[in-house]
Backbone:
């Protein structure tokens, strides 16, 4: 059996696309979803500027609080 069937090795662009199809579909999809969420957050008719939520801000706030608790002097009872 020569040349046909699933055991045939693909080369070039077709081979690359076949081997990496999941990445070629999901990376642009994930980027599009993130961009869409950001675009919705920027629309003032949908989200008031004071109510906007950015994960990076939440992460920074959490790190700041942890650092302040870590560096705060301990009270002796």
Residues:
């Amino acid at each position: 059996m020569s040349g046909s069937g699933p055991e045939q090795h693909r080369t070039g662009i077709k081979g690359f696309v076949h081997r990496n199809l999941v990445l070629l579909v999901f990376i642009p999809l994930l980027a599009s979803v993130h961009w869409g969420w950001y675009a919705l957050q920027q629309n003032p008719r949908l989200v008031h500027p004071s109510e906007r939520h950015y994960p990076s801000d939440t992460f920074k706030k959490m790190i700041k609080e942890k650092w302040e608790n870590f560096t705060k002097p301990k009270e002796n009872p």
In short: The chain has three helices and no strands. Residues 12-71 form one domain.
